[in-house]
Amino acid sequence: MRATNLYAPTLRNTPAEAEIASHQLMYRAGLIRKSAGGMYSYLPLAWRTIRKIEQIIREEMDAAGGQEIMMPILQPSELWEESGRWGAYGAEMIRVKDRHDREFCMGPTHEEMITALVRDELRSYKQLPVLLYQIQDKFRDERRPRFGVMRSREFIMKDLYSFDKDVEGMNESYRKMSVAYTNIFTRCGLDFRAVEADSGAIGGGHSEEFTVLAPEGESRIACCDACSYAASDEKAALRPIDAPDEAELPLEKVVTPHTSTIALLAEYLKIPVEKTIKAVAYQTEDDTLILAFLRGDHEVNEIKLANAVPGARELRMAEEEAIRAVGGCPGFMSPIGIKEGTHIVVDETAMRMHNAVSGANEADYHYINVNPQRDFGAVTVADIRLVEEGDECPVCENGHLHIGRGIEAGQIFALGTKYSAAMGATFLDETGKAQPLQMGCYGIGVGRTMAAAIEQNHDESGIIWPRAIAPYEVVVVAVNAKVEEQLRYAEEIYEELRAAGVDVLLDDRRERAGVKFNDCDLIGYPVRIAIGPKTIENGSIEVKVRRTGELVNFARDTYLKGVQDMLATL
Amino acid sequence: MRATNLYAPTLRNTPAEAEIASHQLMYRAGLIRKSAGGMYSYLPLAWRTIRKIEQIIREEMDAAGGQEIMMPILQPSELWEESGRWGAYGAEMIRVKDRHDREFCMGPTHEEMITALVRDELRSYKQLPVLLYQIQDKFRDERRPRFGVMRSREFIMKDLYSFDKDVEGMNESYRKMSVAYTNIFTRCGLDFRAVEADSGAIGGGHSEEFTVLAPEGESRIACCDACSYAASDEKAALRPIDAPDEAELPLEKVVTPHTSTIALLAEYLKIPVEKTIKAVAYQTEDDTLILAFLRGDHEVNEIKLANAVPGARELRMAEEEAIRAVGGCPGFMSPIGIKEGTHIVVDETAMRMHNAVSGANEADYHYINVNPQRDFGAVTVADIRLVEEGDECPVCENGHLHIGRGIEAGQIFALGTKYSAAMGATFLDETGKAQPLQMGCYGIGVGRTMAAAIEQNHDESGIIWPRAIAPYEVVVVAVNAKVEEQLRYAEEIYEELRAAGVDVLLDDRRERAGVKFNDCDLIGYPVRIAIGPKTIENGSIEVKVRRTGELVNFARDTYLKGVQDMLATL
Fold this sequence. Notes:
alpha+beta, YbaK protein, homodimer, BirA Bifunctional Protein, domain 2
């Protein structure tokens, strides 16, 4: 391809709405353009990268036994009523009526569709396992679309679904996918972690996220410094922390004026915050009140908290009225004296404290010498704490967790029989008995992987593509394309590289050298070859590595091998 | 791929709704499954064929200077209001509201989107031409979806849009696309015609349809037997037919009881129907009456008629009341005596008749000795006749038109400035003057091309794939896969073919030979290789060509070349 024919409108400025580097650079480098909030067109350079990512995904899915199919985007509401998700999915689902007033959604995911597709035709254990996948636009009407294609309302996703005859089979399919995902992100040239994750609204059993590390990423992950344990902050399991042994003292109520925060309380009583117990009050979608108690210096993990209360899903901060209705006093709360039947969840670590301080459910009063095991009565005890830098690893002996940030580019789920049981997708097992199919589902955000790659690989001049997913591996620049000799030389080099199987672009534009070099850095081709006056003079071919800035001058007869050797390392 | 791992559920029976062979066979061969009216999933075999067709399309689009992009499926209503099509598109457009009540449609086509995409960035004639395309799901809520993926509500389309600086440039882009389309359908192994077509609701100037010939096709096309002229029946231009010269006789009104049809009239007056003039009355969407007159043995071409009346688009049969309001009498109509200002369109051939018979706008009365040139006054004269078998070719000297049927798999349009002018998509020309972009648009129905291929290539046993788009080129059948020796031999042959670059499937299922052979014929692999007892005995390898049924026995050391030679001809 020649740059004179390439539709790649680069920009000097960044639109105001682009908050993070990848979004800004995708705009400026002429990769994407916005058509409406959370909806983007992929221009030719971006689409080349997307197709390279898709090809890597396809090869790994096929190698793991996947077969590619394509299901419709529009999905009849009846299927979602069978699974119970038509009502549950909420405002993120885009709903459509056809000319006969029949209801459809624009697929946010395809568990229902694929279960319906196979349920009449996967009849025997002999046909299993079956792994089917597609690469397709998905639709979620995000409340706050942002970060360009990273969190958009229409996005490209690879979704694979596995069907097995038993849990062992499902686990084997899950394991294969975990390996395939590791291969995919490795082949894309990305630094990533496979982290334990919450299975959220998809449901089912265990789940892993594949998170591309990037300082501005939305996801917070905890990684052990001694073993391979890694988990999303939503999921990271934590060991309860034992408090030093103490003889239990009698519970006592004390006056504590102006101490409605933990900091004020600790200062007033001249105790460390680790001796206090704090409360956070939530309400669920159906207004059920949940009171959470943790050690004063700890934070609530809302996902763990919701998982600890049956039926709870989305939590919001509780209204004062609701707290008062159960006998609570905001700013001065403890489980002691709260109305029976209220959902009280106490963190495992808080439960092990001795002679601690907590509210007395009365303004300006606290209890001292609180011993939760003795004083709290019937409460739910669970790990509801948010992981912090330096927490002990829950798996190995001596490791500590470190908090990093990243972008979740893929997630895999062992679903079990959640959908197959609800939708009657059964097969006959070896004994002739009907059993629900054991399912798994496995997604990769394709556009998001591209954005994550940029978020992880850029500098102040622009993108630095990993070679495997660069729109072109090499750009050959005719430094002054108006000089016939330079242009012809550049064309020669371009043709030689093409013939050698290199994915190469010729920048033959009659622009100033500075403009072209800036565009090369902005777009981020891994290797730049400049053909200028020195090349004409003495055959010296200047090759620049985008990532390191390294400049190497090759002779005419050695440059090809030099470039190929460079590419092998990028 | 091994058939034991392949998800290809073949069926004995055909669902009742499948009316035509391609739909029936796609069901039975396990290529597609229906999820709702006009919505289908493509299973693995079908998806392989789709991907092969897509790859051929991509190569030809790229070779013609096209660049692949991807625009969103959801399109904001504002863009369609700019072009004036938001109101005009009608019930076929699927409309959606997002959570902020903003209106979108699910793209039925992308002229508005692409015009908006490039209008701020194609600023100079130096950037032109630009040709951008995508391969994407499109949505049209057909009133009567049918024939499986051939006329479905969600379908895969390749759409390319060209932008040029002048009409010559547009015509050059159009010509390149016409060549590319010819290459695509040729490479797919299809027998097709490029036919002149009406540009319909898309608008603009000239247009061609690429019609795959098939006896059950929905499209009627006229092809000359002497030259390369071909046109859709909607478009086929016709030469006016001269009537034999006669001296004009005086107009006379005669009583003609019970002659409200042309047949009855001709019999009553004992004249050939070629001496009569018949009337057909229509009303437009805004109720305007249009009276059409043709020679008694000719039929109206409603598209040509609508094109002859400014502002007319969709025509329906007129109500009697409307006819009477302008002085007409149903069954006995002529232009003579109709109220002034009424839209009267007379076919060119009817206009050349002498001493003909037409209605007298009074029940049971006709005029004889009607001479349209003398008697009809101010009427519109146009070619409004539907082509018939044997009509003279409008282009060459001695040719005659023959009527065939086919499936429209692609259509190309020279749009001109219809969208660019309405949406302010201008560039600066050589003189620095702002000019609207000259556009073209070019579509291929990808799923429809697959269905058309089947419609054209099948027999009573199943599909007969052209090699280039077969899901697999060759199937190797282990005749009795329970016999270890046969299975191992088949695997060996399968691996040899794979190594030689043949796209091959191994049928290793432990089914009866008959079942497997029937499936091979049904699915339609171009070449079948059977490994059975004779192979074990004396190395004889039986190769069958699906299209001809020809059976050839090769020796172990010659079969590979034999199969490759066969494939080259399929």
